[in-house]
Amino acid sequence: MTGTMKWEIVHVPGEPESSLEVSTVDVLASKIEPKLANKIVRQLNQVCPLENLRHVKRVRKRTVEGNAELSVILCLSDEYEKDAEAIPRGIHQLISDYNLCPYNAKVAKYAARSKEEWEEQCKLWPTSYHPSTNFDGVAGLSEGELQLIFNYMKVVIQLTKLSYTGALQVLNAAIIVDPISRQVIASANDQTCPWPTTYETSARYNCNDSDVCAGVSCLNPWGWTAQKQSSQSSSMKSESKHTWHPLRHAALVAIENAAERDRQLFPGPGSSESQSTPNGNPLCADNCPAKRQKIQQHVCQLDLFRQEHSMVKEVPDNREPTEIMRPYLCTGFDIYLVWEPCTMCAMALVHQRIRRIFFALPNPNAGALGSVYRLQGEKSLNHHYSVFRILIPEQDLNRVELNVSDNFLLHG
Amino acid sequence: MALETGHDLLTELRFMELALEQARFALENLEVPVGCVIVEDGKVIASGSNRTSATRNATRHAEMEAIDTLLEEWQKIGLGQSEVAEKFSRCDLYVTCEPCIMCATALSILGIGKVFYGCSNDKFGGCGSVLSLHESASEKLSRGDLQAKSFKCTGGLMSEEAVALFRNFYEQGNPNAPKPHRPVRMPQSTE
């Protein structure tokens, strides 16, 4: 194992990275009599609450020539710039009641993510800063945890290689990991194309080569209609009726495998399988033999992979899983993907309550974690995961198998 | 909608009633009450209802269930990718709640014809509420020949009925999910 390569991890925040200069909003502010501050602020919060600027303090206090000077934000001024008449009537009332002289000011648009950023913001107008809510940054990761994360990323890149058919294309791969028990919960490859039958583990490929990557489902979600049939073997065709599926991207298959594992480990109540016996309803998909077989096939593949590399730590079986240990969906679990997921996969990971997402390569076509959309920043969603990108030197990406060896244990 | 004939509206209501039937089936099974039907040439060819609790897979929304039955059926009779794509383009989906971001992307990937939905989905909606994936995001998602596919989307069809089912569901409580999957708001026109 080479210890000299430089892998890096970058947090991908919910808001786009931007300099303070562009991430400000214009507000209308005014100096006020300190004695009247309470009264005015109370009225302002009723007339014009600053819903999307909760991190911004309504009142700024400065000391000018030994005297405290208070200013208050009246309202946003962006939309009123050209039309002073458009200022809310209540604000007009306040201005005339207290003889205020409004002026334009700028405040930070987003809550600060670091102390440095916060200090920078406060030069404009004071904001509040809560370091405790910013724990999802890279700073919270220990050196040991980082090594584990990098190792899992190597595992998933290796899985991508397992899918390499020697016939031009690679597929995306995903593994779902319980970071506490260090167990691999599920793994999967893209299954949008006919499943390859041979693996070329020693293959070298360039993940940035667009031809090689054309089969990566999330990179090219709309490309399934143009898939070549060439890699479909005749034996495969007879064994399984479900040889391709435009929506079976690696992340979705991994979620399905994790759910399957959950049902097997914890067959208790909550699996309302018996209640949902199809009653004029379409036969449920999990019962179809083709899918069963696929899961088994996949388990075999992973077993093979484990034998080859013995990197995946197995938890001893003497502990019977109990209902208490049963996780709710994938709460607390991490997922590793080679390519940034598309909106379908990224939303699926919200639904399944994944805790953290790690990916290596951006997806400029359809990426939902910063490239095109940024689901981790969609406030309306009921769950938010943290997103990290792992920067891997190109030579490592192309030759990862050289760096994965038997003495490289995940629990080391 | 403005030019729609009374006959079309009646047909749409009839299909939405079938989707609501699926949603009621889900409710009976303690699932989030969302249901759908897929229609080709005026005939229902597939139906689905939410199965997230039974499968412990939160991606098993009604749309995904119905889509999977079709993909399986069509592959069974030997259709290839381009034929399946052609089939989907002639299909309409009737679903009781606006498709979420995941399902809206899936429908765009498949190239569905039209989508009719009941109530809007304020928190997860991918057809206008949170993101607008049905509009093919022509500026956002288009590179070379990877054109995202758009589909026509009409909301507000029997939304009161869809919302009422959600109310029932949250009143009866979901023993399997600590948090609701498809929060609901009162229906609004989705123009």
From TrEMBL, chain A:
Q: Which SUPFAM superfamilies match?
A: Cytidine deaminase-like
Domain CMP/dCMP-type deaminase: where?
242-372
Bias (Polar residues) occurs at 271-280
Annotated keywords: tRNA processing
| GO MF annotations, alphabetized | metal ion binding; tRNA-specific adenosine-34 deaminase activity
Q: Which family does the record claim for this protein? A: Belongs to the cytidine and deoxycytidylate deaminase family. ADAT3 subfamily.
> Taxonomically, what lineage is the organism?
Eukaryota, Viridiplantae, Streptophyta, Embryophyta, Tracheophyta
UniProt name for this protein: CMP/dCMP-type deaminase domain-containing protein
Region named Disordered: 263-283
Q: What is an annotated GO biological process for this record, any one?
A: tRNA wobble adenosine to inosine editing
UniProtKB/TrEMBL annotation, chain B:
A Gene Ontology molecular function term of the record: tRNA-specific adenosine-34 deaminase activity
GO terms in the biological process aspect are: tRNA wobble adenosine to inosine editing
Question: Pfam families from the xrefs?
Answer: dCMP_cyt_deam_1
Q: Where is the CMP/dCMP-type deaminase domain?
A: 10-129
Q: Which InterPro entries match?
A: APOBEC/CMP_deaminase_Zn-bd, CMP_dCMP_dom, Cytidine_deaminase-like
Output the Gene3D superfamilies linked to this UniProt entry: Cytidine Deaminase, domain 2
Keywords from the named record: Hydrolase, Metal-binding, Zinc
What's the domain of life for this entry? Eukaryota
Family annotation (PROSITE patterns): CYT_DCMP_DEAMINASES_1, CYT_DCMP_DEAMINASES_2
Protein name per Swiss-Prot or TrEMBL? (wild Malaysian banana) hypothetical protein
- Organism field: Musa acuminata subsp. malaccensis
